Every structure is written in structure tokens, then in C-alpha cells.
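Before going further, learn to read the protein records used in this course. A complete example follows; check for yourself that the lines match position by position.
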Amino acid sequence: MDGYGAGTRTTPTRLRERARYDRETVHAVLDEAYICHLGFVADGEPVVLPTIHARVEETLYLHGSTGSRPLRLARDGLRVCVTVTLLDGLVLARSAFHHSMNYRSVVVHGQAQLVRDPEEKWAALTALVEHVVPGRSAGVRTPSARELAATALLRLPLTEVSAKVRAGGVNDEPEDLSLPHWAGVIPLTLVRGEPQSATDLDACIPTPDYLVIS
């Protein structure tokens, strides 16, 4: 299957032409983003929490503490909605109404389950570290039994999934094109800076190659 398919919860009510259901677009957004937002209902009230994630094929893993509310609620399964957004630019139109943003976003609906299998948990934790900094998992101390016990993970299958993309320039009304106002796009990018060594780091320890900006 090449795409996820449009469903009741994955079809936008407006601007449907921006929706994407292909795996390439969805995977690219999930893999590029560092933060997702996990939405669920607790005690009848909506809750949305930021957390880190990692995609392993068609499964999304979400990091948390064993004492956190969503992880406690997920022991028997938890209905969730996970969102990820990448902001690519500010679109400044001649009219206030047509101001917009260029973005790529993904929404995932489903039943999240607590990861209980030790091998799956270890593989998912490694994937989380690699998602943040590729190559890092080989250059750190592995978690202790106490640390593993304090860490919990949610597993969410990528079944009900959609992406939404806005790209391009200004969409002004024809009658506004002659107005004396600047219009255009301000690109936005996330730029990684030079690594800053810890103040207590042994001076003999070099910066790893995977952190060096070429």
C-alpha cells in the first residue's frame, strides 16, 4: 500500500487540496521534527503534552516517564491524537486576511499502547536517541536498570494518518495587487549551531565526528 488513505478523522474540512496521504511525505515530516504534541482525554478534560518521538517503519514511539499521566492511562490502551508541525516560512500578503504560513504537518490518530517487551523497549529507546542525534547511541552510557524502570514508552501504529502542506507564495486578491504594500515570503529554517562542550568535560575528549558541522 503506497498511502494511508483518507478517513473521517484524517480528511480536513477546508483546504483539502493541501492534504497528503503518501508515506514519503508523512515519514519525512515525522523524521525531521524533534517535538510532537500528544493529545488525549483525562478525567473528561482534554490534555496536550509536548514530547519526543521516533518513527520505526510504521510505528511511532513516544517517550515519557512511568509516573506521567498518559503513560499511566495507557496501561489498557489510550485513544490519542499526535501532531507534528514544521514551520517553513511566513507568508506576508498585501491584505491582512491573506497572511499565512508555509508549513508541513502530520496528524496521527489511534490507540496507543504501553511498550512492555524489554527488547522492543530497548530498540525504541535507541531509536529515540538516534532520531535526535544520529550516531549518538554508540557514544553514551547505556541506561541502568533503575533508569529503564523509570522510563516508559508508548507505541502508536501509523494507520489513521494524514499530512497537510502549505508551500509557495502569496495568494492576494487581484484587486489588491496594485496596493503599495510589500508582499512576499520570509523563509524560516532550524539551524544547528556549533557544539558547546560541557564545562566539566575532559579536555582530551574530542568532539565526535557526527557533531561536527561541515
In short: Residues 126 and 138 are 9 Å apart (CA to CA). The longest helix spans residues 118-132. The chain has one domain: 16-211. The chain has four helices and ten strands.
